[in-house]
Design goal:
Structural class: mainly alpha
Radius of gyration: 14 Å
Distance between the termini: 22 Å
Strand order of the largest sheet: 1-2
Order of helices and strands: HHEEHHH
Number of domains: 1
Helix content: 40-55%
Oligomer: single chain
Strand content: under 5%
């Protein structure tokens, strides 16, 4: 998730940023500011990731979009990590 955070904020490695694409709805919707990632097409073609990168390119957008918006829109990496850790602990221990 830290790699996805870097990719969405433009501070990651370029090859990581190339694996994920921001979700941009066609009409201007409120969800455009939610920092979602677009899931890759699973039908093949030029936008489908290679076998080497497919796991990250497929799972990162899925897991990223499942995070609460306050985590995805964190202002800094420090805040993102702190909120992510708290979120994951809550998921695990509040069963």
């Amino acid at each position: 998730m830290v790699l996805a955070y870097h990719a969405t904020n433009g501070s990651g490695y370029s090859y990581i940023q190339d694996m994920v694409n921001p979700y941009t709805p066609a009409p201007a919707l409120r969800s455009a500011s939610a920092k979602r990632l677009a899931a890759p097409s699973l039908r093949g073609g030029p936008t489908f990731p290679s076998a080497k990168t497919s796991r990250f390119a497929i799972l990162a957008p899925k897991w990223w979009n499942e995070l609460p918006i306050e985590i995805r829109t964190a202002d800094s990496l420090h805040i993102f990590r702190r909120r992510l850790k708290t979120h994951l602990f809550r998921l695990h221990f509040e069963r």
